[in-house]
Design a protein that fits this description.
GO molecular function: heme binding; iron ion binding; oxidoreductase activity, acting on paired donors, with incorporation or reduction of molecular oxygen, reduced flavin or flavoprotein as one donor, and incorporation of one atom of oxygen; steroid hydroxylase activity
Keywords: Heme, Iron, Membrane, Metal-binding, Monooxygenase, Oxidoreductase, Transmembrane, Transmembrane helix
Number of helices: 16
Bound molecules: protoporphyrin IX containing FE
Number of domains: 1
CATH topology: Cytochrome p450
Protein name: Cytochrome P450 2U1
Shape: globular
Radius of gyration: 25 Å
Cofactor: heme
Structural class: alpha+beta
Number of strands: 8
CATH superfamily: Cytochrome P450
Organism: Elysia marginata
CATH architecture: Orthogonal Bundle
Length: 498
Amino acid sequence: MALIFDMELWSLLVLVIVTLCVILVVRGWLEIPQNIPPFPVRPLPIVGHIPHLTDPRRKLMEWRKTTGDLFSVYLGSTLVVVISSYDLLRETLVKQAEFFSERHHRGILPVLNVPEGVVGTSGEVWKENRSLTLNLLRSFGMGKHEMAENIIEEVSAYLGELSKLSGAPVYPKDLTSRSVSNVICRFLIGKRYEYDDPEYAKLLKCFEDGADLAKSSGLLHWFPNLKYLPGDPFSHKLLIKRFEEMTTFSEKLINDVIKRENTDCNEDNFIASYLEEMEKRQASGKPTHLRRNHLDRAIADLLTAGTESTTTTLLWFYLYMVHYPNIQEKIDDEIDRETGRSRLPCVADRTKMNFLTATIMEVQRISNVLPLALLHRVSEQVTVRGYTIPKDTMVIPHTDAVHFDEKIWGDPHNFRPERFLNDKGEVIQPEHFLAFSLGRRMCVGEAIARMELFLFLAMTLQRFKITPVDPDQLPPLTDTMGLTYPPTAFEVKFVERH
Ligand code: HEM
């Protein structure tokens, strides 16, 4: 009797589960909006395309081949449209910029998804904060604020540390990240940190964890309720902790600047300029979106965005140099010709060191450290090539597809800096180079990043030869997924030239 009852219970349970699955599948099918760009494969109920995307970089390239330049995927229940060609990226992010320039405003990690600062905001808050940030970056990049001199000083400290290694093998990530981040600190507060300063170490720990957290917490973006699971398998708590630490660090930087200003120090940095402009606009009585909370977040945005992508690009550059010693030699010859070994390179040398500049661009093209840029959001329903993209759809600007498009580059998988030089050996700036993205959301730090990359590399290669630890076993040119796509950890030697 008990057995029959058990069997009936089991049958009932199976029936309920099957019915639920059918309802979910049918509902999923019915809820898919009409006339959206095609799917590469049918989405699964609840999870959508997530199970296919364990390696999104490779998978999206594969799907572009099978499905075309415009396709849809579901991440959980969120519709995402992938834009995978240069022409389409221009048609959308540039020509229809008013509809394609927002960020996502829902769901992810309620605490982190604060629409503050620059990277995560939309509409008027974003416009005003981005515009002021861009203006300040420009004015500090120009003569009077001596951004270039600051970078040169910082790189000199960096080279001093490399020299202490006496050519021993090193994975240069931590040291490079410390130095790059200091460039942003100088811009934000007008001072740098010693590399072993404990307060600075805390900030760098936030960056370090960022990459691991990006991986372990990924699913929370699409399923925020996973944060309630016992044991915190998706690192929600650690994410919140790191977020709070970043905010505390930003607050401290602001308070330090205010304190120094109160002691009659004439502060000349991003924080002081933002506060001054904020007070001016608030006093004018006109509506303004410059506020302390946006400043807090903008500081964290600049520190994160400014450190991670530049550091990752430098790491890729070092790795390519050990793989292509002939290219490193050509750069050495150029340095010998243009600056020699006794005078430090300066910004003005950039227009003369075309081969180094072209090599930096080729490293950026082929490593493409943000291959999917950052997610955008569509603010209104739009039509693209006859397809309907509903309001609030997420958009992936798939710049990797452009950087590896054979029709554009011919041999995109070859490392060939000469593709950025014309017949006269001058640098060309192809519109298809999208390392900094395009449209209204493109990187605000492009100019400073280019200046930094040039000065770091010209000065490093002037003083050191980068060599492999074992010439018969070069570290692989493979990437790993984090906040950006850095190379798999590797060691090289920085051998001082005498
Ligand atoms: C090699 C270095 C860098 C690369 C490759 C890079 C690339 C990018 C890319 C691809 C985006 C996304 C654009 C989009 O959403 O379509 C971006 C955004 C951004 N970057 Fe950079 N970046 C670099 C350095 C910097 C630096 C040095 C700073 C700060 C000084 C910075 C600040 C930002 C900010 C604030 C945004 C958000 C812009 C917005 O949402 O309006 N980046 N960057």
